Amino acid sequence: MEKSGRHPIHRRRGPNFLKIPALSCLRIIILIVTVINAFGHLASGAAYSVVKLQHLYANREGSNSANKGRGMSSEHFEMLKAHDRARHGRILNTIVDFTLQGTADPFVAGLYYTRIELGTPPRPYYVQIDTGSDILWVNCKPCNACPLTSGLGISLNFFDPQGSSSARPLSCIDSKCVSANQISESLCTTDRYCGYSFEYGDGSGTLGYYVSDEFHYNQYVNQYTTNNSSASITFGCSYNQSGDLTKSDRAVDGIFGFGQNDLSVVSQLNSQGLAPKIFSHCLEGEDRGGGILVLGEITEPGMVYTPIVPSQPHYNLNLQGIAVNGKQLSIDPQVFATTNNRGTIVDCGTTLAYLAEEAYDPFVNSIITAVSQYTQPFIMKGNPCFLTVHSIDEIFPSVTLYFEGAPMDLKPRDYLFQQLSPDTSPVWCIGWQKSGQQATDSSKMTILGDLVLKDKAFVYDLQNQRIGWTNFDCSSTVNVSVATGESKSIDSGKLNSNGSPPSRILKELDMKLCYCFLFLMSSIVILYSNK
Fold first, then answer.
1. Which residues contact 465 (CB under 8 A, 6 or more apart)?
2. Which residues pair with 295 in a beta bridge?
3. Which member of 89, 115, 435, 518 has the greatest number of CB atoms within 10 A?
4. Exposure string (b/e) for 169-181, b if CB count within 10 Å is 16 or more?
5. What is the rounded CA–CA span in Å between residue 523 and residue 25?
């Protein structure tokens, strides 16, 4: 079976409101008690200290005081703005979130995608999320062999650099072009724009050039506040497609790469102090699919972490073994070790999963043996399949992937997908494929795609070079941490299309704030009555 996604060659349920109001009230009460006590000490004639404060930039050249009250210079004003920008980067307290559509089911969508806005004025584009590549690119005007319609039921758009007042093509002498050429075949000459050529593992490819323009996004401040923000980023403008990228059945406007390169959107926003160097996704695996991707860290109970293999172009992990029904399979660990042509990659741009050739047969045979008393396999479209009237959770075994310091427990739906037989009977097939069916040089690679990644909260901690996960209901509220250590709740199922929550959640918040206020006032009354 061909992979629907594209791999490059080379929420536990919780309340719908913020989970910090009680803590906020406690802090306010402590503050009020402190102030009351302070006034009490002053009234009783207690000794106190006075600290003289001085503005850090009060007497700097160009300041109001240095100019003897005649106002500050424009240079001093710009210095203060620069100071504020640096401070705002240190106290980053917002979350950038993207609501996802799509599903892991290869017969429905086989990919997850989100809606972004680019340019001035902003225009919408639907792009596939992909942790197996680095660059955000969209189809541009004019485009050769680009699909005009999509079977996903979305309207396709073409980015027009001349139609955006803020678009600027990237020149070959730009320092970003040097970084870009590390991850793509260079098409750059001294008299041309900075070009690229990407080839994906399914044989598809894209040609284009880089542009710099405004990227619009929602900053999720809290459960009832979102800010519309924008930042200038560099992304790809594709003018030629080949292979599966020319087909309309699952066509999108482009691909949103979340790799580690400096030109990934995550890295670019982080370098501007606008987002943390960490992102998370939760891909819903039910029929309706969907999910959420946030620039921040999902913090849910049971999260385990494993280190990212350093100095690799993808998210390589150290897979050390596989167990079926708790029994370790007899596979040499070197089969999964990271070398020039081996390794285990996490890639949400891949639909299914791919096992290295030496691991595939032991895995499939162990599944067949485990269900032999209930059903026998048959081959359907090249996949081992099973016809059964039993629940798959009752007869199919559990599977555990043992990574360095972190197990990943899988249910039958994490390695099976459902097909319909010619007589419409339900058939379950093993969705893990033998590597090498996608690209000639990948027979020794193990790739974990959406079939495995769904129904789990996944965290890509680039700052600490680790990846974490936990099994999770991705239709429910997820807790996301921000740089200050606070945790905020985001419910992808209750966000409107623009990322803003509905008014029902506002009413719930109002009630909580009322309770908090009443508790506060009663505490103050008690404090004064005891004086």
1. 307, 308, 310
2. 96
3. 435
4. ebebebebbeebb
5. 11
Q: Please give the C-alpha separations between residue 168 and each of 142, 156, 193, 336, in angstroms, as whole numbers.
A: 17, 23, 10, 43
Q: In terms of pTM, does the model score above 0.70?
A: yes
Residue 426 pLDDT = 82
292 forms beta bridges with 99, 282
Alpha helix (H) residue ranges in 72-145: 74-90
Q: What is the pLDDT of residue 34?
A: 44
CA 358 vs. chain centroid, Å, equals: 32
The β-bridge relationship of strands 319-324 and 327-328 is: antiparallel
Using the predicted structure, report yes or no on whether residue 486 has a pLDDT greater than 70.
no
Q: Judge whether residue 112 has pLDDT over 90.
A: yes
Rounded CA separation 176/178 (Å): 5
User: Residue 479: which of 284, 292, 306 has the closest Cα?
Assistant: 292
Q: Could you tell me which residues are beta bridge partners of residue 221?
A: none
CA–CA separation, 6 vs 133, rounded Å?
Answer: 9
Mean pLDDT of the chain: 79
Residue 18's pLDDT is 31
Nearest one of 420, 472, 479 to 108, comparing CA atoms: 420
For 424: left if phi > 0, alpha if psi spans -120 to 50, otherwise beta; the answer is left
| Per-residue pLDDT at 61 exceeds 80 | no
CA-only gyration radius of the chain, Å = 27
Catalytic residue set: 130, 347
**Which segment of 46-50, 143-147, 384-388 scores lowest on mean pLDDT?**
46-50
What distance in Å separates the CA atoms of residue 258 and residue 245, rounded to the nearest whole number? 19
DSSP per-residue letters across 431-497:
-EEETTSS-TT-TTEEEE-HHHHTTEEEEEETTTTEEEEEE--TTSEEEEE-TTS-EEEEEGGG--T
Euclidean distance between CA atoms 409 and 406, whole angstroms: 10
Higher per-residue confidence, 139 vs 70:
139
Predicted confidence at residue 184, as pLDDT, reads 66
Distance CA 131, CA 519 (A): 47
Rounded Cα–Cα distance for residues 267 and 269 (Å): 6
**What's the pLDDT score for residue 178?**
76
CA distance 234 to 468: 28
340 φ/ψ angles, rounded to the nearest 5 degrees: -65, -35
Label residues 288-319 b or e (16+ Cβ within 10 Å = b): ebbbbbbbbbbbbeebebbbbbeeebbbbbbb
Which segments of 61-204 are extended strands (E)? 95-103, 111-118, 123-130, 136-144, 168-169, 185-186, 195-199
Q: What is the SS3 assignment for 180?
A: helix
pLDDT of residue 247: 94
pLDDT grade for 87, boundaries at 50, 70 and 90: very low
Give Cα 80 to chain centroid, integer Å: 34
